[in-house]
Amino acid sequence: MKDVIREGGQTWGGRTAVTFERETTTMVFKAVPAEICTNCGEAYVAEEVSRQILAAAELAARSGVQVDLRKFVETAR
Q1: At 54, which CATH number?
Q2: What integer pLDDT is reported at residue 74 of this predicted model?
Q3: In a domain, 77, yes or no
Q4: Which of 69, 75, 74 is closest to 32 using CA atoms?
């Protein structure tokens, strides 16, 4: 896929970290599958992966988590 922000960049499958912050909750998900631009390093996460991250972050925020660092584990749908 081509980088949608910077023309000329190509993306390749890889892993990235995603940080979620809201009010008093900070979560970092490591090893998130993504398409990463070889030119600028911009990471593009698939819609389903984003949905899973947001659901986990929402649950953590509601339960009072302040800081959480976890390895991303894709859930089956």
Answers
A1: 3.10.20.860
A2: 84
A3: no
A4: 74
Amino acid letter for position 46: A
Average pLDDT over residues 47-67: 95
- Report how many domains make up the chain: 1
For the CA atoms of the chain, what is the radius of gyration?
14
41 is in which domain, residue-wise? 11-71
* pTM, entire model: 0.82
**Contact assessment for residue 20 and residue 27, using Cβ atoms and an 8 Å cutoff:** yes
* Residues 33-47: tens digit of each pLDDT: 999 988 888 899 999
What span, in angstroms and rounded, lies between the C-alpha atoms of 25 and 61?
6
Query: Which phi and psi angles does 62 have, rounded to 5°?
Result: -65, -30
37 in a domain, yes or no? yes
Q: CA 18, 40, 12: angle at the middle one, nearest 5? A: 70
